[in-house]
Amino acid sequence: MLRIGQYPMPADMLTDIARQCKALLVVEEGYPFVEEMLRGVVDMGLTVHGRLDGVLPRTGELSADAVAQALGFDVPEVRGVPDVVVARPPSMCKGCPHVDSYLFLNEALADRETSRVFSDIGCYTLGALPPFESINTCVDMGASITMAKGAADAGVRPAVAVIGDSTFTHSGITGLLDAVAEGTPMTVLILDNEATAMTGAQESMAHGRIEKIVLGLGVEPEHLHVVTPLKNQHEQNVALMRRTLEHPGLSVVVSRRTCIQVAIRNRE
What we know:
Elements: H1 11-19, E1 23-25, H2 33-38, E2 47-49, H3 64-70, H4 97-109, E3 116-118, H5 143-153, E4 159-164, H6 165-182, E5 187-192, H7 210-217, E6 224-227, H8 234-246, E7 251-256, H9 260-267
Parallel strand pairs: 1-2, 3-4, 4-5, 5-7, 6-7
Helix pairs in contact: 4-8, 5-6, 6-7
């Protein structure tokens, strides 16, 4: 019997399968979770094959050829992606408000070679990729503000933190409080698409509260700005961002427009 709980493995079902086999091939994307759990817990001399013993590639996606080869079919060579398949790297949705935010940020920073932009985890992390290439580094949730603060403390000018509305309430608030307490010369750009868009568009805890939170942390009202990232407001957003970058202290810019997927869903 399998000596593991019912959750997250269907123990009874796996035991029934194991009793009818001399060997099992575990085909799973990502980490070999099921395969690892099966090893060492089956008391019937069962052989378990998969990623861990090299029958399937240890890393990467599973191709049809790799699985066919593992099943014993005659596959002369595991082939890669055919040349006819055009690479399609991840990109922001058409109509995403972050596109316009990065466009005005890039233009405002175009003549500032010493600038550095520190990002965070969210849809907007895609701003690191072409055609924007707006982001210099990204580590984990909430790190954008603390990284920008550290860079500013080290003399980087201008230092910019880019963080989403959900991530800001998740783990960015404490970093901003630290910057307020020390009067750090940096700019925080909060991309507010009014949703936790990356994980299914749940309502963010920041919804309708960002300005109050920022002011409550001690940011001076005259250095808190709210803009709408739209094509017809691009020039004024660039101008405001440039003025903000020239401020020798702490500034916060909230760029707010609803996630395009949420907007479409609401219209339906």
